[in-house]
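User: quick one, fold this
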Amino acid sequence: MSIGIATGVVVLAVVGCTMAVVGDDGRRLHSRASYDPFRGSAAAEEWVAHGDHAAVIRVTGEKAGEPDPKDGDYIPRTVTANVTRVVWSRPGAPRLPERITLRVNGWYGNLWGGREEAAREGASRLEPGHTYLVGLAGLGRGVELIGDDAALPYDAQTFGRGEFEGRSIGPDAYRRAVRGLPEDAVAEFAVGETYNRRTLRDVQRLLESTSPLNVYRQAALDGLYADLNLDREPDDHADEGVGDLPGRIRRQVSGLDSGTDHFLSVVCRGRGTAVKVRLTVNGTTDTRELPCNTGNELVAVKRPRGEVTFEIASVGTDAGAVAWNVSEAPGGAGTRQPDGRPE
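Assistant:
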């Protein structure tokens, strides 16, 4: 099963996708397979990497938005909710308001002037009168769900009881529905078959003991320009080509061909905004600041003689991860730029 997508993006993603009209019960249920997730939202690692808070909310109202002609018959929806308990917060996160508004799945107009609920397979719609445990993010831009999988039914203080896919459900049915989510999924943990029923305190402990660095590490590795670090033996590229931030990472690279241009490729992922790279080649040191969470940044290493040294450090104190490669520039000795274009 694929994992969740930010709720604000779902509205746009479903247009034109295959969807099932579920009998005549007033629902259109979208398959999980029809989505390309904007970000993961099922695993505890993803909650603490992308989220600012985990909280219990009680949905108190809903409001239809203004339809966009390019979205066909889709009617957007927002819900208002009271925050009844904050379960976990990221260090340094902005304070969560007591009342929030969220963009969620809306409706589709039909030929008879009525409306059908838009729902997604494996996710709650968030409906008035129901309680949920949710993962929330983006407080600087307005509160939003981390993604569709970051909303667990929690009526009567029971995980798995409440609204799910637009219908009422109990813990046993919910447990069957969330099987197959990624390992360490919050939903699967919350309704796990244990001697004692899982509580909010159990979920709190799970989130407090989980590190987002693995998520950041993999995202950084996925963004690398090349898959070979010349500063070590060829191996699994997750070996020494990635490090955690904050903290200073220092590497020495020797034995490079002095007649060939190289480049240092750096990619950063996390909550930070930039990294500082200090590169020493042929006795000359160059320091520059590279943006984080944008793309793969290349720093030229011109015909190195002897050892090349580079240091990477975060700008600020936000946590994250960085990956790097030192690679030959395409095109040979000093005749082309790192992207392969002639100089």
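User: anything notable?
Assistant: The chain has six helices and 19 strands.
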